[in-house]
Amino acid sequence: MKNILIALALIILLSSCAYYNTFFNAEKYFENAQKEALSADGTPSRSAVQNYNKAMKKCGIILTDYKDSKWADDALFMLSQCLYYKQKNYLQAKQKFEEVILYYPKSEYAQRSHIYIARCERELDKEKAYKKLRDFLVSGASQKYLVEATNLLAEYYLEDKVYSQAEYYYKKIIDNYPKSDIFEVAFFSLALLYHRNGEYPESSQIFEEFLKIRTEKKNKLNARYYIIYNDLLQEKYEDVLSGVASLMKQEYRDQELSALLILKARALAKLGDTDQADIIFEKVINENDKTLLSAESSYWRAEMHFRILNNYELAIEYYNNVRTQKATSPFVEDAVSHSAVASQIVQYHSSRDNIELQQLVSEQMKLAEYYIEVLSLPDSAMVVYDNIISHRDLLMLRLDSLQTELIELKSKLSVDSLAAISDSLATQPDSLIIPKDSLTIVLKDSTVINEAPPVIKPARSDTISQNITKLQSDIELYDNEFIPYVKFVKLWLLKNIYQDSSRTAQFYLEFRADYPDNKYSCAAEELMQNQEVEFITYAAKQQREELNYAIAIIEEQPDSAQIILQQIAADSTAQFYHDAIYSLGYLQYFIYRDTTAARPYFDEILTWQNQSERTNVISSLYFDGKFLKLQRLPALVERERRLAEEAEQLEADQLEAEAPADSTDDEMIIELEELEKPESRYMPDSDTQRSPRPKKP
Fold it and tell me: Could you give the C-alpha distances from 478 to 110, 134, 343, 466, 524, in angstroms and in order?
């Protein structure tokens, strides 16, 4: 009996050692995978994935062969972590973490699983992640995991730039959990939060306090780096240079040394020593080739040439080098957009003698928008807008000059023409003298009789007249479109960017006085009243209301609708002229059923450009001066086609899902059968659905 007990104990011991060794190996594989650095795109390396796979295999053995062992909860939790880190399979990982909570509710891993579920939700649904963490904070979990959840919640708010909430949770850790492992992280993160939020003095103050606590040397070096960075952003360039010189004596990490050199170069550039700054930028690029640091150095080098030296061609070259150095650099997006601005400036300052007015103004507008949206330089945009406005004066000077030249030219032509006529009528005395030899005629003199002084041809006059007409058209475009739009944008800048109420009010009054019924000045009124802005004149708004009213009553009160529509259609330049003509054609054809009256409207509609929807409808009713006899309206044909396609797709989906047909099929078939019934007349009844019916604009 004793031998049997010893044998059983030995078996149990060996079995215990077996699954412990299995879990121990799984743990080693997992730790090795965690030590591997992530690739440039944030995914685990190939060797890390292999280690995660090995760990998952070992965990699977425990969960299959030793599912009742004390290592089962460890194995399931580790398996869940592998899914989370290996392939970023957040949905499957979330399900496994939920299994840990379900099957091992009293395990410490159950509490950690709540936090990991929030991490998974972060990638699937941000709001659910926030809710999960906030709920966990009031769940009564142990302090260790409450602190971890609080810090994670703060991190997420910081990433999403909800700084007030991030600040609240970081301060909560600092005030309530000063002895926790996360205390130092929260302290540093709070200072970093102020830095990212542009509160540089506050950030430096927190970092200075952070330097007083006991922490690792690298953490203190990082804090000092951000203090110098804050000085740079506060334009304390001399302090930056002295701070860099001091910190470089203690910094021992190569990457951080290069980061300090970038700060130094940026400060030197601002102080005017661009040559030395350029040397440092190039040094960092060469010593950190194809890294995030070289990409960052290329970006700031480009910024120096763009903003300080105004060497736009060279700036473009360095901007393009950012992506070349590191495609995943956070500076790539700004480099691309700033390069586009630099290219636009180069194009703007290039020769524009032969450029069309519309293209010229379009380039200027685009450049101004770049200054506002990309570079956040509203002052530069204002300069561009003022140049657009002032260009009208140049056009007026050119117009006056040409008009004066034309008057002088016409006057000269008139005088020369009269002189030529006078000379041609005058008889030369010598030409009438006949020599003694009556057969001899002096041909030379007789030729002179028909010669007249040279007359200036009218070609020059025609050219000047054409140029005058073109200039007058351009000036009218400036007066009605370009300048009012530019003034509207300037008003928007004054109100929303500069937030200068007095300048805004004064500018608005002048704008409305100069352009009382322009669509942009009308929009300015809506802007000032914080209403939705619409570029349309008051008269056009009134006309639109009348048109909408006519369309609304076109079937019940066609006579009244016709009167309103005819009044709108009387002016071919009216904004809603096309709508009125189309509605009148519709009324005559579908309501009055008067094809003779509809014909002129249809003829005009078919000549319209950029009105394809309407011309296509009319073409289906009317072709080559003749009305087509339709068995059914194009709208019904199109509707039948659409429903047939939907029915076919529905049937295909059901076959694929191998599910029984539901009532939707029957309803669809009934509807199709109804559509297939032939129409009794080619003219539809008044209650028939009409696709060509006018729409309210």
Answer: 70, 58, 26, 19, 18
